[in-house]
């Protein structure tokens, strides 16, 4: 499917981030040659060493801002890639509410620049990092790709919806780009080696890092926001997907685009497990898997929280030939091994 040399190079913007770094591993395992583009504003350079340990080799990395047109053009000129996976975006929901212009500028300008550069350098394939946030609180579950998008709850979420629209409109205008927008549900876990994983800056915005940090004693307790929802145990339901499964989905998306004879195309695909898990069940599964108790308390509902959302994964199975393989317990085990490793590093430094 791919061959040696330039014909397998893939630019991975934000490739040092949580999802990006794991996707780099999957790309190399699949015979692609990832080219990381990351300014390390929301990631750590230590990720590159983790990747080297896992892969037994260095990965090409350009430490540049994806909004720097000249620098990004230089990457395309030098590397001559066949595709782009676009992860690079600010993603903290709370910060996006406080600093909306920062989010619109970064998240949309970088996409616009890519769509301008790709035709110029004859780069055909684009996989766009989207999100299930575009669905809001859907009226029916599970959500399919046909489920109506609802107004975003945050500027961050809105940048994903607008990003999808920008790609759709560009493709309608017949720019020579084939694009797939992958709507992720809730990525969790880490590479089983514990060499790379999620590195939230400051207070985690996601459940699993908060669980592992609480279990590690970094945080005194975990607050579960609301236990009076219309769910089996009263807590919110999400579709938690292992980051390695998510990484593999990007490889299959690239393969799909690579094999297509279309000149210009656009589609969206849900990437989840198809299963909903309550917050309390995630905590209990973590405790059962690791043998470590989590000090949690029930708090009031958090404004803006979606009660329940999980994916219909029929399309990812039929179009990509991909389904999630890893269990919730496996994901939580790997997340805990990663947390233990980085906690040791912090204590030694």
Describe the structure.
The chain is an alpha/beta fold and 349 residues long. It has a domain at 7-187 and 242-272 and 310-325: Rossmann fold (3-Layer(aba) Sandwich). 41% of the residues lie in helices and 16% in strands. α1 (18-29) packs parallel to α2 (46-55) and α1 (18-29) crosses α8 (243-259). The longest helix has 21 residues, at 100-120.
Q: What is the element string, with H for helices and E for strands?
A: EHEHEHEHHEHEEHEEEHEEHEHH
E-strand count: 13
Instruction: Classify the helix fraction into a percent range.
Output: 40-55%
General form: globular
Q: Mind describing the biggest β-sheet?
A: 7 strands, parallel
Q: How would the blueprint of this fold be written?
A:
Blueprint: E1 9-13, H1 18-29, E2 33-37, H2 46-55, E3 61-62, H3 69-79, E4 83-86, H4 93-98, H5 100-120, E5 125-131, H6 155-172, E6 178-184, E7 186-188, H7 207-215, E8 222-225, E9 237-238, E10 240-242, H8 243-259, E11 265-271, E12 277-278, H9 279-290, E13 296-299, H10 314-320, H11 328-348
Parallel strand pairs: 1-2, 1-4, 2-3, 4-5, 5-6, 6-11, 7-10, 8-13
Antiparallel strand pairs: 9-12
What keywords describe this structure?
11 helices; 349 residues; seven-stranded parallel β-sheet; alpha/beta; Rossmann fold; disordered N terminus
Short précis:
It holds the Pfam family GDP_Man_Dehyd. This protein is an alpha/beta fold.
């Amino acid at each position: 499917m791919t061959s040696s040399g330039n014909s397998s190079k893939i630019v991975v913007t934000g490739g040092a981030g949580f999802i990006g770094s794991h996707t780099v591993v999957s790309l190399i395992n699949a015979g692609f040659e990832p080219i990381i583009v990351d300014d390390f504003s929301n990631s750590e350079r230590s990720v590159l060493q983790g990747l080297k340990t896992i892969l037994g080799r260095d990965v090409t990395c350009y430490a540049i801002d994806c909004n720097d047109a000249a620098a990004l053009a230089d990457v395309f000129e030098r590397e001559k890639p066949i595709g782009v996976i676009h992860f690079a975006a600010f993603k903290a929901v709370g910060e996006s509410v406080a600093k909306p212009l920062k989010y619109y500028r970064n998240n949309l300008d970088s996409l616009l620049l890519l769509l301008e550069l790709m035709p110029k350098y004859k780069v055909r394939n684009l996989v766009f990092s989207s999100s299930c946030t575009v669905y809001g609180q859907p009226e029916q579950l599970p959500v399919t790709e046909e489920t109506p998008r609802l107004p975003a709850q945050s500027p961050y979420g809105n940048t994903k919806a607008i990003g999808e629209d920008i790609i759709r409109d560009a493709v309608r205008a017949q720019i020579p780009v084939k694009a797939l927008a992958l709507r992720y549900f809730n990525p969790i876990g880490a590479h089983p080696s514990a060499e790379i994983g999620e590195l939230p800056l400051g207070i985690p915005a996601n459940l699993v890092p908060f669980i592992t940090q609480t279990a590690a004693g970094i945080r005194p307790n975990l607050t579960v926001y609301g236990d009076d929802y219309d769910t089996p145990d009263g807590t919110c339901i999400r579709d938690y997907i292992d980051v390695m499964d998510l990484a593999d989905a990007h490889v299959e998306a690239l393969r799909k685009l690579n094999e297509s004879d279309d000149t210009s195309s656009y589609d969206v695909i849900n990437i989840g497990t198809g299963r909903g898990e309550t917050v309390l069940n995630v905590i209990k599964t973590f405790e059962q898997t690791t043998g470590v108790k989590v000090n949690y308390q029930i708090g009031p509902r958090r404004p803006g929280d979606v009660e329940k959302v999980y994916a219909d994964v029929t399309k990812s199975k039929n179009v990509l030939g991909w389904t999630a393989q890893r269990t919730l317990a496996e994901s939580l085990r790997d997340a805990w091994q990663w947390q233990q490793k980085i906690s040791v590093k912090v204590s030694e430094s």
